[in-house]
Design a protein that fits this description.
By secondary structure, this protein is an alpha+beta fold. It contains four helices and six strands. The radius of gyration is 20 Å and the shape is globular. Strands 1-2-3-4-6-5 form a six-stranded antiparallel sheet. It has one domain.
Length: 196
């Protein structure tokens, strides 16, 4: 949020309230982080590590992601509005997938699909998908090598209610990290009694 002593504008307060009290799948470990201060007068930022252990065991790291909300009461022409959502997501991928020429296009498609699935109204969506090949050396051998997929994107929400945008971000990041769809409170139907 802005360091200014001003009272936050009503629309920005509405956006903040719409982000509070949300629950996510257990692999998401979310914290609030300092928001950028130069792009807009008001901002809030969240980050999440995607890890299937409660203590964030590095061996179970699946990815990380950020969700930033910018608000400028005067609006910005590039945004075509007063709000802008920025997301960054990164996840290691298998080397066979890293060679797929359609990987970037497929990964990008998960973002608008997640936004539409959650019912988030938006416009001016843009971004990039990057493949990164990392090798870590130590001593006389390669300690590790991996390919990471990284996506940076931004869009303008149509309203200050951002709950659907937040959940679309989480859904998209889960897809990028290779997690299956998450369904809460799954219960199995009772079997029919067999006739004798």
């Amino acid at each position: 949020m802005s360091d200014s002593e001003e009272t936050p504008p009503r629309d920005f307060c509405t956006a903040l309230e719409s982000l509070k009290g949300q629950s996510f799948r257990p692999e998401f470990h979310i914290t609030q982080i300092p928001a950028p201060t130069r792009i807009a007068p008001w901002a809030v930022a969240l980050q999440a590590e995607i890890n299937d252990t409660a203590d964030l065991d590095p061996d179970h790291y699946l990815g990380d992601t950020k969700f930033v909300v910018l608000y400028d009461p005067a609006g910005q022409s590039a945004w075509d509005g007063n709000f802008r959502v920025i997301v960054h997501a990164r996840a290691p991928i298998e080397s066979e997938m890293g060679d797929d020429p359609l990987l970037g296009e497929v990964a990008w498609s998960w973002l608008p699909e997640s936004l539409q699935k959650q019912g988030a109204s938006f416009h001016n969506l843009s971004g990039t998908v990057t493949r990164i090949f990392n090798e870590t050396f130590g001593g006389l051998y390669i300690n590790s090598s991996r390919i990471e997929l990284e996506l940076r994107a931004s869009w303008s929400p149509a309203t200050p209610y951002l709950t659907e945008h937040l959940h679309a971000w989480a859904d998209f990041a889960a897809s990028l990290a290779g997690l299956p769809p998450f369904v809460e409170n799954i219960s199995s139907l009772p079997r029919k009694a067999e006739k004798i």
